[in-house]
Design goal:
It is a single chain. The protein has 12 helices and 10 strands. The strands form 2 sheets. It has an 8-stranded parallel β-sheet. It has a two-stranded antiparallel ribbon with strand order 1-2. By secondary structure, the chain is an alpha/beta fold. The longest helix has 13 residues. It starts with a strand and ends in a 6-residue tail after the last helix. InterPro entries: AKR (IPR020471), AKR2A1 (IPR044485), Aldo/ket_reductase_CS (IPR018170), NAD(P)_OxRdtase_dom_sf (IPR036812), NADP_OxRdtase_dom (IPR023210). This is Mannose-6-phosphate 6-reductase. Keywords: NADP, Oxidoreductase.
């Protein structure tokens, strides 16, 4: 299954996020994911593993497992490179060993002190607060993103972690409309107003953290996952599926693209098996009632300020 973006390109509705995947394990994980059926991989300069992802992709192409045109590869511009968009894009392409990106996203709607192209440590000021660059507007950043399309480096461009206000502004000043807005959304943080606004204006929504972060966000942010919800466990029993599969299926039926991450083979397989059942309208409404407006991924822990305040 795929969603046709406003750029005309098709984006697989399920992908594999590579956040927090490390080292030598990445190659085996990605190769196995491709064998399972994954054709969409969500990367970012900030994940600091584009080089390892590139090695895995090169092997997949070399062995004939897939062709480049079979895959949809996303990566993201880091905050410190807002003034160096084209250079950052080229740096990511080199690490990924690709000639073009299927999708290039502005990772966060904020520019920070430049620390060198491709370096992603968040510069903090003397008070331990994120060193924000107030000289670069998001409009300037976006027009540089548009340049990557005209140069043939990127097929589609988009935004990430943008709210309705910022998304509306981007629609107003853009020559090339954002194809995607990647946001945190899951049963505990549904954000219907933002999802509906984007979809109404032709912007596809990708759900990062579609399972509510599970153990990863519990470890980093101390958050609670919807996977432990007793009512959702009951639904999973009804469908003879796991809670994760029910939650991912809910995301698909909202017409959002889902990019769960996992470093375990059995979870990769489990997360992909979401096309052989369908939630009833009643159960979709029931899950809608579970919304807590509860964000699980908040980088304030690392940046010394809450950008969402």
């Amino acid at each position: 299954m795929a969603i046709t973006l406003n750029s005309g390109f098709k984006m697989p509705i399920i992908g594999l996020g590579v956040w927090r995947m490390e080292g030598k394990d990445i190659k085996d994980l990605l190769i196995n994911a491709i064998k399972i059926g994954y054709r969409h991989f969500d990367c970012a300069a900030d994940y600091q593993n584009e080089g390892e992802v590139g090695e895995a992709l090169a092997e997949a192409f070399k062995t004939g497992l897939v062709k480049r045109e079979d895959l949809f590869i996303t990566t993201k511009l880091w905050n410190s490179d807002h003034g160096h968009v084209v250079e950052a894009c080229k740096a990511s392409l080199k690490k990924l060993q690709l000639d073009y990106l299927d999708l290039f996203l502005v990772h966060f709607p904020i520019a920070t002190k430049h620390t060198g192209v491709g370096t992603t440590a968040s510069a903090l000021d003397e008070e331990g607060v994120l060193d924000i660059d107030t000289t670069i507007s998001l409009e300037t950043t976006w027009h540089a993103m548009e340049q990557t399309v005209s140069m043939g480096l990127v097929r589609s461009i988009g935004i990430s972690n943008y709210d309705i206000f910022l998304t509306r502004d981007c629609l107003a000043y853009s020559k090339i409309k954002p194809a995607v807005n990647q946001i945190e959304t899951h049963p505990y943080f549904q954000r219907d107003s933002l999802v509906n606004f984007c979809q109404k204006h032709g912007i596809a929504v990708t759900a990062h953290t579609p399972l509510g972060g599970s153990l990863a966000n519990t470890e980093w942010f101390g958050s609670v996952s919807c996977l432990d919800d007793q009512d959702l466990k009951g639904l999973a029993e009804k469908y003879k599926k796991t809670v994760a599969q029910v939650v991912l299926r809910w995301g698909i039926q909202r017409n959002t693209i889902i990019i769960p991450k996992s470093s375990k083979q059995e979870r990769l397989e489990e997360n992909y098996k979401v096309f052989d059942f369908e939630l009833t309208d009643e159960d979709m409404e029931f899950i809608k009632s579970k919304d807590r407006k509860y964000r699980t991924n908040n980088p304030a822990k690392f940046w010394g300020l809450d950008l969402y305040a």
